[in-house]
Amino acid sequence: MLRTLLSAAAAVMMSLTLANAQESTIADMVQGDPDAKIEIIEYASYTCPHCATFHAGPYKELKKDYIDTGKVKFVFREVYFDRFGLWGSMIARCAGPERFFGVTDLLFKEQSQWTRAGDPAAIVKELRKIGLKAGMNDETLDACLNDSENAQALVTWYQENAERDNVRSTPSFLINGEPYANMNYADFSKIIDEKLAE
Q: What predicted TM-score, i.e. pTM, was given to this entire model?
């Protein structure tokens, strides 16, 4: 089973260089009021240490002050610079929209543990532990991790997003369509407050 997953994921990642004209069917994961005046789109990789730092700090403040209060619609879009980030995304999405952000928090919180577990089989084992912690069972995890069609759809979706929004690093952000690099909470807050006042 694990060999199947590793082979499928390797094939998908090799196809990253092949343009796929088919439209992706992957849904955005969203928090906050869908009709909020401010939309923040974050592009992040589950294997990116700066993304983990953002989610441990500024994101929590943004969520408390702006997302949970209905001032900001927050969209999280995964970036796949490596196969391990893709596998993390497959686990998070496997949990469903209602648990996606909780699994995302776990993936970032335990990033140093699972990304440094060793060979690909050891990394998958650690990712499965996170999935089990989030309430998924072995059968569900097997089905999700071996879904090569979904893996290809995720890669296509990432390629479309990266090309359209010129994503070159993580984390990166679009605030009401304008690109921004990673920043501290004070800078985020200033930009959001200015846009809310417009």
A: 0.87
